[in-house]
Design brief:
The protein is mainly beta. It is built from three helices and 15 strands. The strands form three sheets. Strands 1, 2, 7, 8, 9 and 11 form a six-stranded antiparallel sheet that branches.
Length: 240
């Protein structure tokens, strides 16, 4: 279900079916059917409506590809279509979910390419929903047309890509600015920087020269300023 667009600019419907063509399958699993006509007949005689592939592993989970050769009429009234689904085999605990981006592909024997079928929306699997996919993946008339090349001598090949989203909580950084401060300027006059005057306010520290420390309170806590006169030839100041 697509979320409503609350913005003044266009947002693409992530439930829309997207079809594209590529040469390399880049699939996690390929499933070839030797006789599509016999498959349809066998499914019909068995009183079933779909075929499940052998089990395969992708993204650290176990899956099966589910094919409805006559369409899944219980999903969007998809009769006269090829319906393709990905079923999760692993058992999920209550409250746990798996978000996966799925791409189905169908091999074109005429052009040696793959038709890629997917939607922009991620599919969420949980303990109640273990099967997700596309009910109207391709009209049967297009799939069986010899000019399209999806069936060659009654053979056909399907594939699937699975990308599971990382559920790890992302690191978060916050950019903040300091509020404007008032009365944040403090002045300590140190006129005539000479040894005789410095000794009145600074205490001698062997090997370092003379050290002085003053403390003051600001809105955000207590602060201190330290001044170090290195043999009275230079001055180092630290604010903490």
């Amino acid at each position: 279900m697509a979320l409503p667009n609350a913005y003044p600019f266009e947002i693409q419907d992530d439930t829309k079916i997207i079809r594209s063509v590529r040469e390399a399958p880049r699939a996690h699993y390929l499933f070839e059917i030797e006789s599509f006509a016999l498959l349809k007949s066998s499914i019909s005689h068995a009183g079933a409506t779909y075929l499940e592939s052998t089990e395969f592993e992708a993204a650290n989970y176990k899956w099966v590809l589910v094919i409805y050769p006559n369409g899944n009429q219980d999903d969007d009234g998809a009769e006269d279509h090829i319906s393709l689904y990905l079923k999760l085999i692993d058992q999920l605990g209550h409250g746990y979910s798996v978000n996966a981006a799925i791409k189905f592909c169908i091999y074109d024997y005429n052009r040696n390419t793959y038709l890629i079928i997917h939607s922009l929306a991620e599919q969420r699997y949980n303990v109640m929903e273990k099967q997700k996919g596309i009910a109207r993946a391709l009209p049967l008339s297009d799939f069986t047309s010899s000019s399209n090349g999806f069936i060659k001598r009654d053979r056909c090949k399907f594939g699937i890509e699975v990308f599971v989203a990382d559920t790890t909580i992302a690191r978060t950084a916050i950019c903040s600015t300091l509020k404007e401060r008032t009365n944040s300027v403090y002045t300590w006059p140190m006129n005539g920087f000479q040894r005789s005057q410095m000794l009145n306010t600074l205490t001698n520290s062997p090997g370092k020269g003379a050290i002085g420390n003053w403390r003051f309170t600001q809105e955000d806590g207590d602060w201190s300023i330290t001044a170090i006169s290195h043999f009275f030839s230079s001055l180092w100041i630290s604010l903490t």
